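debug: dumping io for the single-chain case to check the tokenizer round-trip. Nothing else runs in this session.
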Amino acid sequence: MTTHKKQKNVVLIVDDSPETLSMLNDALDGQNLTLLIAMEGQQAVTIAENINPDIILMDAMMPNMDGFEACKTIKQIPQLKHTPVIFMTGMSDTQSIKKGFAAGGTDYITKPINPDELIVRMQSHLSNAKATIHAQQALDNSGQFLLAINHQGQIKWATPQTYQLFELAGADETWITSVLAKKLSNFINDADKRQFPIKVQAKLKQLELKYISETDENEYLLRLSNLEQPNETAMLRERYPLTERESEVLLWISKGKTNREIAIVLSMSPRTVNKHLEQIFKKLSVENRTSAAAMALRCL
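debug: decoded output
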């Protein structure tokens, strides 16, 4: 029987103090971590971009590029947007704390550092970050056309399928960041308008965007559709006595997705997915998801 070693998390420590670096190295030794060291901001940015650490411990005050500026720069790197950054500093005033969070920091710990407290916080942020990344990967792999926007209508993130559909529709970067952003800003900031899908005409295709939910502060999840393609959930509802939600669950069952993946895609709990499945099995007179998927595929 073979056993798999638990993969080590990579920690980037950024501090210009040899004493602090030595203390952190001793404190984190034996925690199943790989430690990387940077002694100034720009060096931290270069290392982070090339190695993609799992978590960053960032000194706030350093010469040249300080920790706040380094954090801002790191957070602009797409693959690092979910990487937690814990600021380490001797300053504990409100303005400094606000500045750290505004720069993209996840947490703030004051010097002198309590090693036990630091380790607990790191474990918590690593766990949360991995859950977020796994959810994002599930969305990216789901085949779903999803995107998140802010109040200004600018895209914060989108699945690969969304960008592919924009490309097929002839929607270039200029159109997305100007024309579409303006329409989406008006749409998302009006609670009444959000109740109904919005149609937009790109260069080659007409697209539809439907509001799903507010997923975070200043982050709104939308689903993108190509109006020139048949609506698969509508086809399922026409053939079988299903609700809209049930037809969405059945569609993703037919695409081989697990209950957990479906829950992420449809913004519901796995338990709710199970409840919908019970109704789907009853309405289709089948006993399992394989039979239900086969009926859906025959319909589609």
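debug: round-trip ok. The radius of gyration is 23 Å.
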